[in-house]
Structure of Glutamine--fructose-6-phosphate aminotransferase [isomerizing]:
Amino acid sequence: APIEKGNYRHYMQKEIFEQPVVVADTLQSYIRPFEGEVALPDIDFDLSKVDRLTIVACGTSFYAGLVAKYWIEQFARVPVDIDVASEFRYRDPILEPGGLALFVSQSGETADTLAALRHAREQGQRIAVVVNVPTSSMAREADLVLPTHAGPEVGVASTKAFTCQLAVLAALAANLASERGEFGRDEERDIVAHLQEAPAALNAALGHDDEIAAMAHLIAPARDVLYLGRGPYFPMALEGALKLKEISYIHAEGYAAGEMKHGPIALIDDNVPVIVLAPSGPLFEKTVSNMQEVRARGGKIVLISDAKGIAEAGEGCMATIEMPEVHPLIAPIVYAAPVQLLAYHVAVLKGTDVDQPRNLAKSVTVE
Ligand code: G6P
């Protein structure tokens, strides 16, 4: 049966609002709340012995992989290499025999990612995949399948598949951290509790829909929009910019907040909205000082942060969006919601074809 839009105007909107449920469904197969454990499907090799991980993907799935690099390195202390699939094969990457390569894909059919998977296999790598389609080519060719349970995604711009990928990758990072002794028993138990908070936190983030719809009027007239973040919020900034350009056709760039002074700051004037993703925490002050550099040049800031961050740095911003305060392993999942909603509402204002943006395809099966 065809998937219905129900009360929603677009599939993308419906899929954005499905996230608390599908992220919960996805997490359910990776956590054992009673035991306080993060569990992965059975495999015939010892994941904890892997001393280097290669992640490969395209588009939004690549940004999920980039967030995972921060998590896996920070929490599990495993070095991670990451590439977009269309670059991976052709640079003849150095892959140690017995290494693990991880491919992230909603469809499991993206031609570049599938070719990269086969290349890694030929180079003696073990293959793990995070996929949303269990019958896909990538799922069939993998040694370890880590499914997302996002359900069919119709909107060309990926939303719920992305947050489900992040949920799986957070579970993977936590599992590796536990297996490698970086997390003790109490920490693992604690992380399971935090992972369980993700759906409710996402729900709270989605509660800002009306506010973000009103804010979209401030963004829609812009020619360029800049997204800034540090740490895992750098890839989240890249994803925010990708969502906006995909469906609203406004030029948008995601940048590491600290790198802005090496170029994009030249673009800033009072016509350029700058979206800053910055929860309070160790990177906050540095990001705020980058934000002040924007403000000093007339840039109009939208600050996405928690109550503490907004109290500290919200003054003088064009707008703020308050996110719940959650564990760093969960927060990027939550911060996905406001950037998706902002892109969605701007696109609606511009009257574009939100679910079928021009020149884009849901699944790209050509290299
Ligand atoms: C296309 C889609 C994107 C998606 C990318 C990777 O460009 O429009 O939404 O992120 O392919 O797709 P995959 O199925 O491999 O995640």
Notes: The chain is about 45% helix and 15% strand. The pocket of 6-O-phosphono-alpha-D-glucopyranose is lined by residues 58-61, 105-107, 110, 113, 156-158, 360, 362-364 (CB under 6 Å). The first strand starts at residue 31 and ends at 32.
